Amino acid sequence: MTTHVDPFALVPPAVIQHWGLFLVMGLGLISLAIFAWLRSARASLNSVYFFGWLFVIASAIETVNAYLTGGWSGFYIHLLGAILFGVTGYMLLTYARTSAQITSLIVAMYFIVAGIFNIIAPLTANIPDHGWHTWAGFITLVLGPALLGNWTGKRIHMPEFRLIGIFIGIDLFFRGVAFTVFGLALRAS
Fold it and tell me: What's the DSSP call for residue 126?
């Protein structure tokens, strides 16, 4: 005889109570993804600044998410995610003019670190039904080497700028889907 264990039993009631905010954060990240995709069609150096601000806004969303989780083990994971978004955004905003090719390298390194982080974090935070979070992490991890494969160390050209925008959009989209699904699962629990 098997017993059904509620995967949300370990989630504090305060987190479940805020299911709508997780949903809004997920939809916000999906909206940022759409902006990244639209902006990548008109790639330029200004796009690097735009993508830097996307990371800063995503950092703010992750910071709010960290505080929503409160004492739950997910607090530090979301806070580290916010710091990673913030540092990447800061680097893009600070160094975009100095060297355009470094932008590609910074974003590729972000994808690799964030991908590994997003694969491991849901497991350590006991996030129930963490499949979407893990899948988003895997996709992000794959984007890093794919972007590095296009990095020649020479001056970055327009197609690479477009690729950066498309990849940032993919990362934000799947992260947003993961939070949206999580919010809806919290609502149903």
Answer: T
Contact 85, 115 (CB under 8 A): no
Token digits of residue 52 = 């830097």
Q: Are 118 and 127 in contact (CB under 8 A)?
A: no
Distance CA 25, CA 37 (A): 18
Of the candidates 163, 41, 44, the one whose C-alpha atom is nearest the C-alpha of residue 100 is 44
Q: How far apart are the first and last CA of the chain?
A: 24
Task: Confirm if 166 and 43 have CB atoms less than 8 A apart.
Answer: no
Tokens of 74: 């997910």
How distant, in Å, are the alpha carbons of 10, 29, 154, 164 from that of 33? 31, 6, 27, 12
Give 139's pLDDT tier (boundaries 50, 70, 90).
Answer: very high
d(CA 19, CA 16): 5
Phi/psi at 156 (5° precision): -75, 140
pLDDT in tens, 81-111: 788 888 888 888 887 766 556 777 888 888 9
- Nearest Cα neighbor of 172 from 87, 107, 76, 96 is 107
The per-residue pLDDT for 10 is 62
Single-letter amino acid, residue 103: T
